Amino acid sequence: MATLFTKIINREIPAKIVYETDKVCAFQDIHPQAPHHIVIVPKAEIPTINDLTPETAHYVGDLFLAAKEIATQLGVTEKGYRVVMNCNGDGGQTVFHIHLHLLAGRPMTWPPG
Ligand code: AMP
Fold it and tell me: Residue 6 CB: number of other CB atoms within 10 A?
């Protein structure tokens, strides 16, 4: 059973895709938490950070490289931005296909909620 994000990657569910390579896909979050809120997903289905292995860890690097490119596209590299990856219930993860949130366009607070 494909994950929600794989369905977006396969264009079975609509989303505003802003960036795509052979390895990753990025789209606008449906419930944005900042003026810019992009979800960056590997095309490989890995449920959570807990499932990463030395063989699959390179996918996380791909997500960060995509975040850097998207931040450049958005023109926020100098002002700054936040990237977040949630894991399981207490981490706030709701879609079990690892993804990096890129949030920008307003000052972020710390600690996060
Ligand atoms: P997380 O809670 O870290 O698993 O993040 C999942 C994110 O996916 C949330 O910020 C949701 O708002 C977002 N999301 C869920 N469904 C969609 C969708 N159909 N299109 C775009 N973003 C979505």
Answer: 17
